[in-house]
Amino acid sequence: MKMKASVAFRFSRCLGDATTAHETGIFRYESQRSGAAAVVEYVRFDALLVKRQEARQMVMENQQESAGEDDWKTLE
């Protein structure tokens, strides 16, 4: 059984300096098993990122309560 998945992020708050960042927002996770309807979830999160070789990498994430599509749209 094959599965497709994708994730997208939108941010409500970003704090940081040259080496670290803290971001708050919502991620949208969509998954679909072969032959089944797609399932979409929206989840609030906080993340800690560090800068390594000119790119920020997430080193810690705290997933919180579920969010809705309307919440997601407010972060456009």
Could you explain how this protein is built, in words?
There is one protein chain. The protein is mainly β and 76 residues long. The chain has one domain: Roll (Nuclear Transport Factor 2, Chain: A). The protein has one helix at 69-74, and strands at residues 3-16, 20-33, 39-52, 55-67. The protein has a four-stranded antiparallel β-sheet with strand order 1-2-3-4. The longest helix has 6 residues, at 69-74. It is globular and about 45 Å long. The relative contact order is 0.25.
Write the layout of secondary structure elements.
Blueprint: E1 3-16, E2 20-33, E3 39-52, E4 55-67, H1 69-74
Antiparallel strand pairs: 1-2, 2-3, 3-4
Features:
76 residues; single chain; mainly beta; Nuclear Transport Factor 2, Chain: A; 4 strands; 1 helix; 4-stranded antiparallel sheet
What's the total number of strands? Answer: 4
CATH class: Alpha Beta
Q: What's the mean pLDDT score?
A: 95
- Tell me the series of helices and strands, N- to C-terminal: EEEEH
How many angstroms does the end-to-end distance come to? 34 Å
CATH architecture classification: Roll
Could you describe the largest sheet, including whether it forms a barrel? 4 strands, antiparallel
Which spans have pLDDT < 50 for at least 5 consecutive residues?
none
Q: Helix amount, in percent?
A: under 10%
